[in-house]
């Protein structure tokens, strides 16, 4: 499998509007972060996770115009509101994009973006929408999932497996449950939320993510969903072996 970090930033991105870089060095290009999203690819299958508001630029940079499916982790704006750009994928691949999400996310998406899934007037539907089921298979990639507490809602935690390799994707969660531990334990690569160094009510902070990576005995950890307090070079200097900050456009082949 190949994993591409499309976006490594939090909901406001880095820099925030107003050129607010916070503690991040603006001279380090890996500090420029768009909203969180990843691509998972095998030799035959490509899965997009979330449709961030920056999806157009992310897919242009990745030279991608077709996917086999998109999975939404939840319906918050920074993970869903680039959904209109699925229209261009639909045109490129000649039919609606296969969309997958849990029940609360499907409700939220269809309430706000009914036209995407139902079409209207002369416009056909851009995407389909089906349930996210633990143990489903997309192409030759097996997908497992778990509900993750995320403040007052849940997000979908994901594990992808292909050819004996495994990738976990854990973003937007506020507690680490036994079911999450079972899902992520022993993955070859864990791409995980680490918003900042001090606590946050709906996201993990750095020390928590590092602790859970150790407890799950993952092979390698890449940090994402980082805000403007998380400077790339400072993180590289302080993180333990096997853990590194992600950045937009980063690719890992397993």
TrEMBL record:
Which terms are listed as keywords in the entry?
Hydrolase
* Short name of any one Pfam family annotated for the protein: Lactamase_B_2
Q: Which SUPFAM superfamilies match?
A: Metallo-hydrolase/oxidoreductase
The Metallo-beta-lactamase domain covers 34-210
Kindly give the InterPro entries that the UniProt entry links to this protein.
Metallo-B-lactamas, RibonucZ/Hydroxyglut_hydro
Look up keyword rRNA-binding and say if it applies. no
User: Does tRNA-binding count among this protein's keywords?
Assistant: no
GO MF entries: hydrolase activity
Indicate what this protein is called per its UniProt record: MBL fold metallo-hydrolase
Q: What is the lineage of its organism?
A: Bacteria, Pseudomonadati, Pseudomonadota, Alphaproteobacteria, Sphingomonadales
